[in-house]
Amino acid sequence: MLLAITALAFFACKAPAEKKKAFDLEKAKSDIQAKEDAFAAAEKAKDAKGVAAYYSDDAISYSRNEEPTVSRATIEATIANRMKKDSSGNYNVYKVVDLFGDEDMLVEIGSWAILNPAGVTQDKGYYMSYFEKRHGKYVCVRDMNVTSLPPKPAM
Fold first, then answer.
1. Is 34 inside a domain boundary?
2. Residue 72: which of 93, 49, 94 has the closest Cα?
3. Residue 153 is assigned to a structural domain of this protein
4. What SS3 state is found at 57?
5. Which pLDDT band holds residue 7 (cuts at 50, 70, 90)?
6. Contact 110, 95 (CB under 8 A)
7. Contacts of 132 (CB under 8 A, 6+ apart)
8. What are φ and ψ of residue 123, in 5° steps?
9. CATH number for the domain including 44?
10. How many structural domains does the chain have?
11. Which pTM value belongs to this model?
12. Inter-residue contact 31 to 54 (CB < 8 Å)
């Protein structure tokens, strides 16, 4: 009986377990929007390395009308090649529409628009990005996008 009372007293005096901080999805949404804004700013500055910083080393990007691009290095090279060919002055805008996940992974549904220098929409659509937290920050591991405009007629 004395042993039971001693054990009860010992466990009762133990410090309460630390509460795990609740995951703040709104903060995560703000952080992901900041990543999208940095992505767009790097595109506008024709900084392929800055755009590629969005991705993990083992990322795969699924674009329209082409095979998937595998690895951050290949994604960066593909983006740099597109940037060299582009003299339109168009720029992109990205907006987080919805975000799902937890502290370790997030799935973003976003909208994108391509605007000309006068700010007129040239194309628009949606994308989905899957993020994992690595080394304390979210990086995009997979993404894909679609246009919401009808196909342009063949000439």
1. yes
2. 49
3. no
4. strand
5. very low
6. yes
7. 56, 104, 105, 138, 139, 141
8. -160, 160
9. 3.10.450.50
10. 1
11. 0.83
12. no
